[in-house]
Amino acid sequence: MASQESLEAAVEILHNMQRTRKNVKAVVMHLEGVPGPANLHSYALASGAFLVGLRAISVPVILAAWGRISGPSWNLALACDYRIAALDADFVLPIISPPECLGELVGQAVAAQLSISSGTLDSQGLQELGILNQVRPSKDEACRAASELGKRIAGFPGIACRQTMSLLSVPPVRYVSVGASKLPDPDLFA
């Protein structure tokens, strides 16, 4: 599980790399779904603050997911521009505290279904809904496909990656979780 400090450090490192060297052209996120108790979720993840920081880098974010995705992990998956999951990945519904921009990311009808339904959806079901771009037979193949796409994008000029993302993405601040302003003090999550 990601700690508050590790999430903050990851965003700070990416922002510093982007600011000083301008060489961040894509981010590949590997997401292993391992549900944990709500009291272990970091405030940065539960509130969407981590996603706001990640999206502010303005480069494509590619997901490789496997395991059982639930809780704030959904928001990590939805914040990615290109999503690849292993065939055996499960996604637990409903999405709790979705990002404000959920309807813009997946469409209003799908957003309602993800927020109202309960149970689990498999990777193929999510691909049919248009949420996943690819489903791969295994975790290793999903990770490999995401890394290859990241490398291909890294071959593009950096300015092209940033300009494309600024045109196609919702503003980073919209990735804050619904109800985040009502979350308890972040020190309680630390």
Q: Mind explaining what this structure looks like?
A:
The chain has helices at residues 4-20, 43-47, 49-55, 72-78, 102-106, 108-116, 123-128, 139-154, 158-168, and strands at 27-33, 61-69, 82-86, 90-93, 119-122, 134-136. With 190 residues, it is α/β, with parallel strands linked by helices. It has a single domain, classed as 2-enoyl-CoA Hydratase, Chain A, domain 1 (Alpha-Beta Complex), CATH 3.90.226. Strands 1, 2, 3, 4, 5 and 6 form a six-stranded mixed beta sheet that branches. The longest helix is centred in the N-terminal third of the chain and has 17 residues, at 4-20. The radius of gyration is 16 Å and the shape is globular. The two termini are 13 Å apart. Mean pLDDT is 85; it is low at 182-186.
Features:
six-stranded mixed sheet, alpha/beta, ClpP/crotonase-like_dom_sf, 6 strands, 17% strand, 44% helix
Class by SSE composition = alpha/beta
Number of helices: 9
N-to-C order of helices and strands: HEHHEHEEHHEHEHH
CATH superfamily: 2-enoyl-CoA Hydratase, Chain A, domain 1
The low-confidence runs, each spanning 5 or more residues with pLDDT under 50, are: 182-186
CATH class: Alpha Beta
Q: What is the number of strand segments?
A: 6
Let me know the average pLDDT: 85
Total domains: 1
Q: What would you call the quaternary organization?
A: single chain
What is the share of helical residues? 40-55%
Indicate the overall shape.
globular
Find the CATH topology: 2-enoyl-CoA Hydratase, Chain A, domain 1
Distance between the termini: 13 Å
